[in-house]
Design goal:
The structure holds 3 protein chains of 3 kinds. By secondary structure, chain A is an alpha/beta fold. Chain A has 10 helices and 10 strands. In chain B, about 60% of the residues are buried. Classes of the chains: A alpha/beta, B alpha/beta, C alpha/beta.
Chain lengths: ~260, ~500, ~300
């Protein structure tokens, strides 16, 4: 008898662990039973992100850069698996290279986005970027891997903790990426990945009062209602963003200006 | 030696070493009886047919009648701005655009006194502040952004910035001219045209600014000024031909605006409310910290979104600090905004006064101890004495809600961690202050305070080169500095 | 180290740990505060009062190697009756001279209420042995000086030997008996406002009745923020001990306007109680004529020429 392969159970990624949906639901897609995340899963993911935020944001920029680079390294080692789930080889190449590109930004964002401000008075004044907190990302439906990485990496690199709603039609690449993240020194909770129905989860994420920024790139259809919900706690809403640039990362960053007198 | 030679005057010290009423002359300001809307380079009658008086909060005198724009008026203004954008302004050589903004800066400097007096008259703020802070900073803001107009490509490496189009700008009543400058200067520098809506209680300096635009020869329609109340603002935000919305005001209205632009391509920046913590450690230079506390909360009657309205004092110096603070408060002069010696002017409107009174009542009812120095308030006009609440719990409304008046709530802390926890325990995140002599503690506090502006060993400083704006529900986007340009450009 | 009768906040501890408790000054903030106060405008009646008060607070000073009995006599006459044309102008508080000239000054001011102040303690540098300096002060007092203006040993202060500074003040205070002690900090040599505050408290702890900014031999001398720092130190001592200490800015105050600005700062910081020659003085020479000129301008409403005021 030929050996039976051991099939993987695709679960959520919350707080560094891989739980099933608390609802116990799943949906069949891409030949697998994928967790059908619920409102409460969103709640748990946001809570995990909020808890992880100080640790991830508090790491040195050099460290965060190394962690992102490590993600690329581990992906490279598992590229065969990703090629299977993604459309083609080129997408995997691009996804890995995107991690490398943003890894390099970790310790440069403050230099490109920050300023020293020559105020007209005896004060030292500087402006530095800081992560906004918890970012919700609605990942594009396609391409399943690159689409996600292009939205996730720039939000993550500046120190935000992230809750991702994966592609509904092709969620396997996202969960496989979660396995990479879990073994790449990304602190548990810094990235949380949910699978399920966007129509069910987007409003929960957009209306969550402890989410600070919202990337709507992957919203299917009209996002007006989500943007309205986002206004309830003045979320930073990213519609398109400025792909492959520090300004895309900047959409998830606050700018803090510090004044101090210069005197003896 | 005669008796006269030996005369020794020992007359007693008069009890009052009085400061003179030193009023600025109102003569520098020539007001019209009534103002229309400034659209397409000229004042036009409002189609709405609505006119309301602008009242001086210090005397309740009606200064002039001002138009309240209706939907048709707003549409005309946006149309004028669109036409100006398409028909020339967006293709002006950047260097020429810079020069015309420089002209505005210069004219504001030349006419600073006139604007300062009108600002104090219409809004109630002390002339000392409108003269020394609002107007110089407004002029400086135009001067700063003028220089960016032909250097935009240096602000965004590897990107080509383009103007957005028509910018709808809604400004508040606490710093009318300064907020006008914060909004108009970067918008013009980036090549946009503007429809500006001043606050309903303080429209006059914006209307006088129309005359600056004339003198500077700014093309018609590049800046349009529509006065009115919230309805006009709402029309403007909703107008389909607007590309950019910039708002400074309350968080409540800010959220309304964010909802209103939902689902559109309009770029949005919001500068909203705050409840800033001013943290005093026991090694602070105490007398200067007390000045900082006073400046933090009583500057502009506390009508400041970044006001240091929550004082966090380390317990070990609590008594000393409060004693010094109360003593200093007794020296504050409340009264005629046009008097150069006045520290605290009039409350901007009756409605605002009532809101302050209501919150102060709630503070007393919740059990905080209230202190106000003795001071005689003028009979006419709207006034509120500088007030401090001690024994305030974090849960009291006066510790949570933005009062936007000269009312300080004092809380205590024991350790830096506790200070941070209390300071950040708010949905707002606009500003914070920290006072300590220890360098490493300053940097640690500055890093951990979740606020867009951190003043260390100072408070309420502003500069055109220095970005300003909030975290969390205090809004998003920055005004001032290189970052202030970003709100007014798109990338190719 | 001797124990002072009334120690300001922080002085009850051993020397090193107490220094931080003495507090610090933020340069930018104190200068801004002083600049704001300098913009206050006072009522016309108050202005006249302020100008006359400034006259009454003046320590009319000559401290030159070329001082002679004649020069001092002339100065004393001016001190008693500053404006011969206007007998309503009050006398100044004191004449301030070198010890050798104390008897000559005394002779002239006797019975007028004008005091004689003498500098001492190896003025202006203070760089002599302690016993010589103490003796210098004792002799000046014995010669009849009502007030002794001593200098602190800045060399000791700047090298961290605060005990020596304190000790010398104590010894001089004991040596001069009932005479009033003004302690000159020479703020222009202290480098920081923190040091001005520290030196003020040190001098007060040692027994100073007045703290005085400068000798007049060093620039910068009295500035508004320096005076403000000293007034705040005095205020803290008063709040804590109830003891009233005077402040004397000296050197660099040449214009009536500057004097009035100082009085505004005094009024704002310590209140009208300090607006008396007993608690505030100006050490000056050319200031007096500008005060007189401004008083006459206030009285006549016409701008004046210096030609109408005597140079003594």
């Amino acid at each position: 008898m030929t050996r039976l392969p051991v099939a993987k159970t695709y679960k959520l990624f919350i707080g560094g662990a891989f739980p099933r949906s608390e609802s116990g639901r799943s949906y069949e897609i891409e030949g697998a039973n994928v967790a059908l995340g619920s409102r409460k899963d969103v709640r748990d993911a946001v809570r995990a992100a909020r808890e992880a935020f100080p640790r991830w944001a508090g790491m040195t920029a050099y460290n965060r850069g190394q962690v992102l680079y490590r993600v690329a390294e581990i992906m490279e080692g598992r590229r065969a698996q990703f090629e299977e789930l993604a459309g083609d080889q080129a997408e995997v190449d691009a996804a890995i290279d995107t991690w490398v590109w943003y890894a390099g930004w970790a310790d440069k964002l403050a230099q490109v986005l920050g300023t020293s401000n020559p105020v007209a008075g005896p004060y030292f004044n500087f402006t530095i970027p800081e992560p906004t907190g918890v970012a919700g990302i609605v990942a594009p439906e396609a391409p399943p891997l690159l689409g996600l990485v292009e939205r996730l990496a720039p939000a993550l690199v500046g120190g935000n903790a992230v809750v991702v709603l994966a592609s509904e039609r092709q969620p396997l690449a996202a969960i496989t990426l979660a396995e990479v993240l879990a073994t790449s020194d990304v602190p548990g909770g810094a990235v949380n990945i949910l699978t399920g129905r966007k129509s069910e989860l987007c409003t929960v994420l957009a209306g969550h009062m402890d989410v600070n920024a919202l990337d709507l790139a992957g919203v299917v259809g009209d996002s007006t209602e989500l943007e309205r919900l986002a206004a309830d706690n003045v979320k930073r809403v990213v519609r398109n963003g400025d792909g492959y640039s520090p300004w895309h990362a900047a959409a998830f960053l606050e700018l803090k200006t510090v004044w101090h007198p210069i005197g003896v | 030696m005669t008796e006269i030679d030996k005369k020794q005057d020992r007359s007693p010290v008069p009890s009052a070493f009085d400061y003179a009423p030193a009023p600025e002359s109102r003569d520098v300001v020539a007001l019209e009886d009534r103002y229309g809307l400034f659209i397409g380079g000229e004042f036009v009658e409002p189609r709405s047919g609505e006119l309301h008086p602008s009242v001086s909060p210090s005397s309740e005198e009606e200064l002039a009648e001002v138009a309240y724009a209706g939907p048709e008026d707003v549409d005309m203004a946006v149309g004028a701005a669109r036409a100006a954008f398409e028909n020339g302004w967006s293709s002006w050589p950047a260097g020429e655009r810079a020069k015309i903004i420089y002209r505005i800066a210069r004219i504001l400097q030349e006419r600073a006194r006139e604007f300062a007096v009108l600002e104090s008259l219409d809004g109630g703020k002390p002339i000392r502040e409108s003269r020394d802070v609002d107007l110089p900073l407004a002029a400086a803001h135009f001067f700063y952004y003028a220089g960016w107009a032909d250097k935009l490509e240096y602000a965004f490496p590897n990107r080509t910035p383009r103007p957005l189009g028509v910018a709808a700008q809604i400004i508040p009543w606490n710093f009318p001219m300064l907020m006008l400058a914060w909004k108009v200067a970067p918008a013009l520098a980036a090549g946009n045209t503007v429809v500006l809506k001043p606050a309903e209680t303080t429209p006059l300096t914006a209307l006088l600014f129309a005359d600056v635009l004339r003198q500077a020869e700014v093309p018609p329609g590049v800046v349009n000024i529509v006065t009115g109340d919230g309805r006009a603002g709402s029309e403007l935000v909703k107008h389909p031909d607007v590309d950019k919305v910039a708002f400074t005001g309350s968080t409540e209205v800010g959220k309304e605006i964010q909802r209103a632009v939902a689902g559109t391509k309009k770029k949005l920046t919001l500068e909203l409310g705050g409840k800033a913590a001013n943290v005093i450690f026991d090694d602070a230079p105490l007398d200067q910290a007390v000045e900082g506390i006073v400046n933090g909360i009583y500057f502009n009657q506390g009508h400041v979104c970044c006001a240091g309205s929550r004082l966090l004092v380390q317990e070990s110096i609590y008594d000393q600090t409060i004693k010094k603070l109360k003593r200093r408060m007794s020296n504050l002069r409340v009264g005629d905004p046009l008097d150069k010696n006045t520290d605290i002017g009039a409350i901007n409107s009756k409605a605002q006064l009532e809101r302050i009174q209501e919150l102060v009542r709630s503070g007393e009812e919740e059990g905080a101890d209230v202190f106000q120095p003795e001071c005689r308030l003028p009979e006419k006009g709207w006034w509120f004495a500088p007030t401090v609440f001690t024994n305030v719990a974090q849960s009291y409304r006066i510790a949570q809600e933005e009062i936007f008046g000269p009312v300080l709530s004092v809380l205590t802390f024991r350790t830096p961690d506790e200070a941070i926890e209390k300071a950040n325990n708010t949905p707002y995140g606009l500003a914070a202050g920290v006072w300590t002599e220890k360098g490493s503690r300053i940097l640690s506090m500055a890093q951990r305070l979740r606020a867009g502006v951190v003043w260390a060993n100072t408070y309420n400083r502003f500069d055109p080169t220095s970005p300003f704006g909030g975290y969390k529900e205090s809004g998003f986007g920055r005004e001032g500095g290189l970052h202030g340009l970003e709100a007014y450009v798109r990338f190719d | 180290m001797a124990q002072a009768p009334a120690l300001p906040h922080g002085f009850e501890l051993p020397l090193l740990p107490r220094l931080p408790k003495i507090g610090s000054i933020d340069q930018v903030a104190i200068e801004e505060r002083a600049a704001t106060l300098a913009k206050r405008s006072i009522k016309r009646e108050s202005k006249l009062f302020a100008l006359e008060l400034a006259v009454r607070m003046t320590d009319l000073t000559t401290l030159e190697g070329s001082d002679t009995p004649g020069k001092v006599a002339a100065l004393a006459s001016k001190a008693i009756r500053p404006d011969p044309v206007d007998p309503t102008i009050p006398s100044v508080a004191a004449v301030c001279v070198y010890p050798n000239l104390v008897p000559h000054a005394l002779e002239r001011v006797e019975g007028t209420g004008v005091k004689v102040a003498s500098v001492a303690t190896a003025f202006p540098s203070g760089q002599s042995p302690t016993d010589i300096k103490v003796e210098d002060a004792r002799r000046a007092a014995e010669l009849g000086a009502h007030e002794i203006d001593m200098v602190i040993d800045r060399g000791a202060f700047l090298s961290g030997n605060y005990a020596k500074v304190y000790d010398e003040v104590r010894q001089v205070k004991e040596a001069i008996g009932d005479a009033h002690l003004k302690v000159i900090l020479e703020t222009g040599e202290l480098g920081t406002y923190d040091n001005v505050r520290r030196a003020s408290l040190l001098a007060i702890a040692g027994g100073a009745d007045f703290v005085k900014t400068s000798t007049g031999k060093i620039n910068p001398a009295a500035t508004l923020p320096v005076t403000l720092v000293m007034l705040e130190a005095v205020r803290d001592v008063f709040e804590e001990t109830g003891k009233r200490i005077g402040v004397k800015p000296a050197g660099g105050i040449r214009r009536a306007k500057q004097a009035v600005q100082h009085l505004v700062v005094v009024n704002e910081t310590l209140g009208p109680e300090w607006l008396t020659p007993d608690l505030f003085r100006f050490g000056a020479s050319s200031l007096l004529n500008d005060l007189l000129l401004q008083i006459r301008k206030e009285k006549t409403g016409r701008y004046q020429s210096p030609d109408y005021f005597t140079l003594d």
